[in-house]
Amino acid sequence: MIVEFKKEDRSQMTKWIGGMKKYTLLYKASGDGCTSTAFHNACNNKGPTVTILYNHDNFIYGGYTSVSWRSIGNFQTDTKSFLFKLYQNDTWSPVKMPIANYRNSIYDHADFGPTFGDRDLQTFSGKVNFDGTIFNLNGKTNFGSSYTMNDENYKSIANGNLRVKDIEVYLVEEEPWRKTPKWNTKLLAELKEKIEKYRPLPGLKIPQARILLVGQVGSGKSSFYNTINSIFRGYITSQACSGNAEHSLTTVYRMYQIRKGIRGKPMNFRLHDTRGIEADQGVDANEICYLLDGNIQDGYQFNPSVPVSTDTLGFVDSAHVSETIHCVVLVLDGTTVDVMAEKVAERLKKLQMRMNQRGIPQVVLLTKIDKICERTEEDLSNVFYSPLVKETVERVSQIMGLPRSHILPVKNYESEMDLNDNVNILALMSLQQILHFADDYMYNHLDKHTEGISFSFQKCNGMFRNIIFIIMSAVVCLLAFWFYK
Ligand SMILES: Nc1nc2c(ncn2[C@@H]2O[C@H](COP(=O)(O)OP(=O)(O)OP(=O)(O)O)[C@@H](O)[C@H]2O)c(=O)[nH]1
Ligand SMILES: [Mg+2]
């Protein structure tokens, strides 16, 4: 029997259940047999499930439970279960009927098929035969005994009968919008080790990858440096001044080092912290060129009334590639993406143009995600299951014209007194990605460099051949002249 739980039905179900979900078929009466044994064999101890009945008169309805079927021979408690209707007489008419008496959410008995409430919906018991077209279910309906019906009844839900084309039960699992390895202490240790061992691409004489942090005032640039520094220091640090103020708190250009442990050596990357961007202040298109090209030194005091120029004290005329920027991190406050001032967005676009001209990779660090999603605030490991964070990432990707994989959500340390494994994991995953992008830039540079060398070598070879040819011709002429003389 071809009946299916279509894409739009799945997304409606996901809206009702919440979060990001994927559905895997566990049981199908027409294939597995309409018996309570087949149902329990397929569905017991699997996790949350949704049961769907495809009525002969084209009504589609069923029930969801967040607890596992287990054949306990009794009711199970579930505050999240609900009954639902998706189609009435082939017409899309979704209705959710929530649990009222949550102690009776499902009746979980080995002799019964899926049963919701105190027989609000008992699909069948024992075995039901298939007559080639329908299953005439031997269950019962006592709608409204444990569920709130929201004006629905047996007639509106199932056309007043239990004749079905099929019954399906799907496993409901969390589906992340971005896949990551399992978050645990092992992953944290691996990420830390990889970053500690990071070396920029050999062959270019670049001892440290240079990462430039730019973004709006108060977006969390300095806090990101503090977060990374805290992770490797082993306790919460706030070496870079951070906080809330009308204008940027960061007034000095700093090329921060991060050491392994308290007295360890600096690692092979630096985070360059800048003054925050405002509608009419902060890093502008000219200044960004000097920053990108490594013309400005560590400790430079940003001065909104005197822009950087070649006359600026300590201006580096032509910096080696090791002193230029290898990746730009655009830091955006996740809570203000929708209300970002037009002028700030325009400014950022202009800066991006300069980065693009130089082929410097850009990523967006989307901060304060704890403030956009409650579930993520409670447990940061929910970040890639949060539809709210996903939507914000998609919007930022459109606004900034960057692929979604370049938008990295983070939560910086701000009020914490102790380190937290999940904050560390998310920040280090982002940093690792940033370092990969910096490597991409270096690979491009290396390719250009080596192509440049082979090109000049070929040119040299050509010139050398020409000289030999001229000398040989001269020798032949001289010999001919001498011979005829
Ligand atoms: N809840 C939360 N607060 C954050 C996060 N990141 C930064 N903050 C807070 O936001 C405020 C601004 O952070 P800063 O790091 O100073 O921002 P900035 O981009 O360096 O700002 P300027 O230097 O002034 O341009 C501080 O109060 C931080 O504690 C975050 O991920 N979550
Ligand atoms: Mg700052």
Secondary structure elements and their pairing?
Blueprint lengths: L6 H11 L3 E8 H4 L3 H8 L5 E7 L4 E6 L8 E3 L5 E7 L2 E8 L7 E3 L6 E2 L4 E2 L12 E2 L3 E2 L12 H5 L4 E12 L10 H12 L12 E7 L5 H13 L20 E6 L6 E8 L11 H8 L34 E7 L8 H17 L3 E6 L6 H5 L8 H14 L6 E3 L11 H64 L1
Parallel strand pairs: 13-15, 13-16, 16-17, 17-18
Antiparallel strand pairs: 1-12, 2-3, 2-12, 3-5, 4-7, 5-6, 8-9, 9-11, 10-12, 14-15
Bound molecules: guanosine-5'-triphosphate and magnesium ion.
Structure description:
Belongs to the IFI44 family. Pfam families: TLD (PF07534). Keywords: Membrane, Transmembrane, Transmembrane helix. InterPro entries: P-loop_NTPase (IPR027417), TLDc_dom (IPR006571). Strand 14 and strand 15 form a beta hairpin. The chain has helices at 7-17, 29-32, 36-43, 154-158, 185-196, 221-233, 285-292, 342-358, 374-378, 387-400, 421-484, and strands at residues 21-28, 49-55, 60-65, 74-76, 82-88, 91-98, 106-108, 115-116, 121-122, 135-136, 140-141, 163-174, 209-215, 254-259, 266-273, 327-333, 362-367, 407-409. Helix content is 33%, strand content 20%. The mean pLDDT is 92. It contains 11 helices and 18 strands. The protein starts with 6 loop residues before the first helix and ends with a helix. The structure holds guanosine-5'-triphosphate and magnesium ion (MG).
Which labels suit this protein?
485 residues; alpha+beta; seven-stranded antiparallel β-sheet; 20% strand; elongated; binds guanosine-5'-triphosphate; binds magnesium ion; transmembrane helix; TLDc_dom
